[in-house]
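*** Protein under study ***
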Amino acid sequence: AVQYRKYKLERKECTPLRKRVEYSPELRYAVESPEIRIRLGWKPAPPKVLEQTLDNEPQMHIACTFERVCDFIDELKSRGVDKAQICLVGWNKSGHDGRWPQAFPVEEKLGGEAGLRYLIKYAQENGYQIVCHTNSTDSYNIADTFSSDIVVRNRDGSLKIDKLAWSGGRMYNLCPVKALGYAERDLPRISQLGFRGLHYIDVMTCIAPYNCYDENHPTNSGQTVELYKKIMKMSHDLFGGFASEGAGDFAAEYLDYALYVAFPKLKDEMLDEEIPLWEIVYHGIILYNPTTDTVNYPVKSEYCRLKLLEYGGRPSFYFYSKFMVGGSSDDWLGKEDMICDTDEQLQLSANKIAAAYEEFKKYRHLQTEFIVK
């Protein structure tokens, strides 16, 4: 791991945090702050309707309006949390995974564009960095620009469909060539809402880069990586940084923060010792939360807290992380959750985050250091 880190740095495929924070105030802020993701609204998942249209689109569940996020900001501020990056998930039309690659109009049921602009300004005036969640890999039939032409095609010419369906229904893989076009169209408009910080693009760094066999826009995996890097660079230029889910090695040049690096370790009698290979390579280069079970760690076991500390993670919280219904399919970020349906729940969540932040302040200076052993 130490040798590989040296190899990556010598090839200039990535740059240490301590150097990047010198010219990126957004990254410097993130180094010193926890990440707080808030899922605002979503349609049923798994979906009740696979091929959604304007006539049969399911109702969106509203979990947290823009106005309610302002209440949460007040709670954080009153508890002495002076720094946090807030990421809004599902601000877009029809909520989380609602209609990608369609983003606009801003969801009216959450407060509309006027409400969102007010929230962004309110957060920034209170000293918080605020960003949003977008998507450059998925597409749904209900999107206003959907057609078979924007979907990745398999070698046999069929459309590439994800094995899982989400709130928007059946999920078609978006061709990277088309994804760049949508990013060039939408990301500048999204930045004009006022967002600044480590902009989050869903799953881009945890999926295997696609091959697209459409004769009109053929793309191999290497070309897909280059197209994705252009989108990552756009995030830097427009918002000040780039974040995603997972931590694929190909993204090291631009990735500033990973929501998680891996799933929890396997429980196996043959496993004598766990070596945090990725963390040793990239601590001090990329901010991260080490495993899915360390998300929302203050409401989980002491083991999760200690694992975050041991692996040098950045504290990461996710309101309404459990949004799927049925079986154990919704437990990938843990059975425990943070919610704010009532004032009591909002205050409890703010208390947990405040306590974690106080602890983080004692060791956050280590975020820019390398792990040597």
